[in-house]
């Protein structure tokens, strides 16, 4: 496996043109049509918990007349007690405004979140948080999102994880032959052409059953390592 290198990156949708020569059509179609989005975790730490021991959290359901002026708040769908961290609440956000939440001014973020908590927990005596931290997957230039999903376009164009996972192969001749001789050899069938896989795709987006998950990403890494090992064993 010494002749292969591992490159971890999650920006295929933004940077398909980085590949020279271009990727095969099947891989490109999968990259274009598989859905890719982001989810944001919001951690809020308090000096002391203000909730009873039997309270686990809440899910937010907004009425039309109560929708917040801070439009991004409606993409936060609840806060829950964070396991093993008794003074921390964990919120989840998804939707069109995740990048807004992850990039906004810290004070504005805290103010909006506290307004939301006061609105949904009017009987609780809330204290001001010590710290508020969010994940940054959607604005991290090395990722630009956090999970794939099967989109309607992928279904319409009959593409998905299996097509994205197809290795890119090249035709290889005997390294000792000159280019002209290699063409001659191929033409006369004196030596067979070797198909060598040179580019492999792993990650949760290439998992047909476990997309959007960490274990899907791990499984596909093992799958591609096995594919490389199998190639060398049969070479």
TrEMBL record:
Matching InterPro entries: Amino_oxidase, FAD/NAD-bd_sf, Flavin_monoamine_oxidase
Superkingdom classification of source: Eukaryota
Amine oxidase domain sequence ranges: 10-229
TM ranges: none
GO terms, molecular function: polyamine oxidase activity
Name of the protein in question: Spermine oxidase-like isoform X3
Organism: Drosophila hydei (Fruit fly)
């Amino acid at each position: 496996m010494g002749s292969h290198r591992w490159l971890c990156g999650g920006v295929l949708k933004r940077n398909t043109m980085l590949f020279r020569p271009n990727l095969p059509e099947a891989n490109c179609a999968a990259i274009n049509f598989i859905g890719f989005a982001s989810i944001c975790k919001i951690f809020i730490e308090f000096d002391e918990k203000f909730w009873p021991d039997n309270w686990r959290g809440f899910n937010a359901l907004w009425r039309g007349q109560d929708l917040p002026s801070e439009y991004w708040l409606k993409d936060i769908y609840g806060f829950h007690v964070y396991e093993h961290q008794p003074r921390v609440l964990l919120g989840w956000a998804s939707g069109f405004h995740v990048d807004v939440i992850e990039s906004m001014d810290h004070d504005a973020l805290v103010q909006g979140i506290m307004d939301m908590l006061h609105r949904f927990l009017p009987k609780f005596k809330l204290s001001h948080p010590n710290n508020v931290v969010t994940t940054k997957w959607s604005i991290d230039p090395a990722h630009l999102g956090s999970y794939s999903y099967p989109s309607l376009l992928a279904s319409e164009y009959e593409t998905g994880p299996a097509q994205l996972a197809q290795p890119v192969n090249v035709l290889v001749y005997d390294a000792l032959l000159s280019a002209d001789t290699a063409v001659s050899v191929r033409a006369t069938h004196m030596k067979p052409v070797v198909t060598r896989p040179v580019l492999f795709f792993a990650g949760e987006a290439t998992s047909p059953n476990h997309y959007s998950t960490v274990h899907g990403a791990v499984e596909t890494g093992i799958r591609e390592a096995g594919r490389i090992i199998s190639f060398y064993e049969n070479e």
